[in-house]
Amino acid sequence: MKLGVVSVGGPGALLILERAKKYFDEVELVNIKKLSTKVDSGKEVLYEGKPLKGFDCLYFKGSFRYELLQYTASHLLAGTVYLPLHASVFPTCHNKLLTLLRLQREGVAVPETYFCSNAEEARNVLQMVKYPIILKTPAGTQGKGVMVADSVESAKTLLDALETFGQAFIIQEYIDTGGTDIRAYVVGNKVVASMQRKAGKEEVRANIHQGGKGLAFELDYDTEQLAIKAAKAIKADVCGVDILQGVRPVVLEINATPGVEGISAATGKDVPDIVARYLYERTVEFRKEEKRDNVQNIMDDLNVQKVDSKEILANLDIKMGRIRLPEVVTRITNFRDGEEVSLFIDKQEIAIKKNKAGR
Ligand SMILES: Nc1ncnc2c1ncn2[C@@H]1O[C@H](COP(=O)(O)OP(=O)(O)O)[C@@H](O)[C@H]1O
Ligand SMILES: [Mg+2]
């Protein structure tokens, strides 16, 4: 099995690749800058101009600068390799508003959020909301673009600034958490590590990039289920779910390429190892299912009656003393003409096995 981590080569991607050597036969950093895609009557993902081939799992872990490429390549690769992130994850998670819409649709609790197309309408919204409020841009990261206003007056001044910069903006209820937020690292059906981040002094944003500190934090059952449900809603097998725990927990945003170092340090868990192992297990499962599907498709194609997973009903075809097996046998086994095999023969039974060297 071969894993490719599609990335610019940041520390998280390298750590996961390093751990993955234990599980996969081969691992490779696929430089996202060297990817391109082709669409005509067919479809293709190219790497340095040649078809990208030989992988069983591709984990897209790049920066959001490559959002459209991540989306396109994942879209084209779907079904051919195991992709822990569905193509739609990239545009969705890159935009806080799209994330909230998706979460809301799947019944995941989110903060009360308004979105307006112009400042005039936003002024109307600002008149009716309770203060303090949060103003933010849909695509901000690391806490940049998040502003707090404690009155309609201060909100209006922020609005003027945003209007000058031509930015679209979100108005959101302020959730009082004492300046903390929760990062739940979801892998498959589990929260494998979680931490609480506390904002620095005189700061409402708990982002590590804004001086926030991360500490291990066990989630209660409901919050854990909320994080898992959120990850499922956006179709990510691996992601970081950010939660604000006010009167009730709500999901604030989802990070499709969560850092592994901070959370490992805070929790003492080897998160890159957990991710690498999970990717391997799912890849094995993916290939197994694919094989099963292929066999089923061949059977359906040839209209062959199947008795159980290994047994098919057929009448023997013997010509000039030679037994000719049905075509379905060649298609399922993938045996090639002239290939070296071992025959195991008994009075009532024949088995044909590929010789080990030829596998
Ligand atoms: N509605 C809110 N209520 C309270 N705090 C918030 C709210 N929105 C954001 N924050 C604080 O600001 C931080 C950054 O906001 P977030 O929406 O996650 O933007 P970013 O993508 O820049 O991290 C959060 O981690 C949280 O500490
Ligand atoms: Mg955030």
Write a structural description.
The chain is of the alpha+beta class and 359 residues long. Among the domains are: 2-92, 3-Layer(aba) Sandwich (Rossmann fold); 112-174, ATP-grasp fold, A domain (Dna Ligase, domain 1, 2-Layer Sandwich), CATH 3.30.1490; 306-359, Pemi-like Protein 1, Chain: D. Helices cover 33% and strands 28% of the residues. It contains 10 helices and 19 strands. The chain has helices spanning 11-20, 67-77, 89-94, 96-105, 119-128, 152-164, 221-233, 261-267, 271-302, 327-333, and strands at 2-7, 26-31, 35-39, 43-47, 50-51, 57-60, 113-116, 133-136, 146-149, 169-173, 180-187, 190-198, 213-216, 238-245, 249-255, 317-319, 322-324, 341-346, 349-354. The strands form 6 sheets. Strands 13-12-11-14-15 form a 5-stranded antiparallel β-sheet, sandwiched between helices. The protein starts with a strand and ends in a 5-residue tail after the last strand. Bound molecules: adenosine-5'-diphosphate and magnesium ion. Adenosine-5'-diphosphate is lined by residues 96, 111, 134, 136, 140-144, 146, 172, 174-175, 181, 199, 204-207, 242, 244, 252-253.
Key words describing this protein structure:
four-stranded antiparallel sheet; 359 residues; alpha+beta; Dna Ligase, domain 1; Rossmann fold; binds magnesium ion; binds adenosine-5'-diphosphate
Indicate the topology.
Layout: E1 2-7, H1 11-20, E2 26-31, E3 35-39, E4 43-47, E5 50-51, E6 57-60, H2 67-77, H3 89-94, H4 96-105, E7 113-116, H5 119-128, E8 133-136, E9 146-149, H6 152-164, E10 169-173, E11 180-187, E12 190-198, E13 213-216, H7 221-233, E14 238-245, E15 249-255, H8 261-267, H9 271-302, E16 317-319, E17 322-324, H10 327-333, E18 341-346, E19 349-354
Parallel strand pairs: 1-2, 1-6
Antiparallel strand pairs: 3-4, 4-5, 7-10, 8-9, 8-10, 11-12, 11-14, 12-13, 14-15, 16-17, 18-19
Helix pairs in contact: 1-9, 5-6, 9-10
